[in-house]
Design brief:
Helices cover 36% and strands 18% of the residues. The protein has one domain: Rossmann fold. The chain has 209 residues and is an alpha/beta fold. A six-stranded parallel beta sheet has the order 3-2-1-4-5-6, sandwiched between helices.
Length: 209
């Protein structure tokens, strides 16, 4: 496994160069009244994530770090109809006008986490770095280390971690802070990410800071 130095010297570790990156923990994905619940595509494991990563978010902020998030967004086209890529429309035919709409309730961070988020970026693809200002904002804030959680492990999480890696961020993936639509895909994705990031659970990370 590649060495990814966490600078974990003692319990007083500053997190001033650390950001928790929350991938797509949004109302339309997770809330019982959201778009995915309406379409019958909500994962109960995904719904459990906000409470699990809440403790990590609070600890990082207490130590001077940041909490940032990506928000999957369906931008409105003519008449307000969402601009949906063909592959997503085939996969999620239930998505309609108003779902994941910019600044709408469904696009927003879930209630448990939104008060802790310093800033969010709107994204249209898997990676939180693709066509967003995330890298610009993180670099200006002096962030060198990303702790990544969210959904899905093999999609937004994996893509964002790999994009972060090539931008020279040190990355840690919270294994129980992520979820996929099957345990096998989740575990395989985590194993694959060990080539570019440290992988540990939330309690293990908390013990380091």
């Amino acid at each position: 496994m590649q060495d990814q130095n966490l600078n974990n010297s003692d319990s007083d570790k500053s997190c001033s160069s650390v950001a928790l990156l929350i991938i797509d923990l949004q109302n339309d994905f997770l809330h019982p009244d959201g778009a995915y619940a309406r379409g019958g595509a909500v994962s109960e494991k995904a719904r459990a994530l906000p409470q699990r990563v809440l403790h990590v978010a609070k600890r990082i902020k207490d130590r001077g770090g940041m909490v940032v998030s990506s928000l999957f967004t369906l931008w409105p086209g003519v008449g307000g109809e969402p601009l949906i890529s063909d592959h997503l429309k085939k996969l999620r035919p239930f998505l309609v006008k108003g779902d994941f709409q910019p600044n709408g309730w469904g696009q927003q961070n879930v209630e448990e986490l939104k008060s802790l988020v310093d800033f969010s970026v709107s994204k249209v693809a898997y990676s939180a770095f693709f066509n967003t200002q995330l890298d610009w904002a993180l670099s200006r804030a002096g962030i060198k280390e990303l702790v990544v959680c969210g959904i899905v492990t093999n999609g937004g999480v994996a893509s964002s971690v790999r994009d972060a890696h090539v931008r020279d961020y040190r990355c840690t993936v919270l294994s129980d802070g992520c979820a996929a639509f099957s345990d096998q895909i989740h575990e395989t994705s985590l194993l694959d990410l060990t080539t570019v990031a440290k992988v540990m659970n939330c309690d293990e990370y908390l013990s380091l800071i």
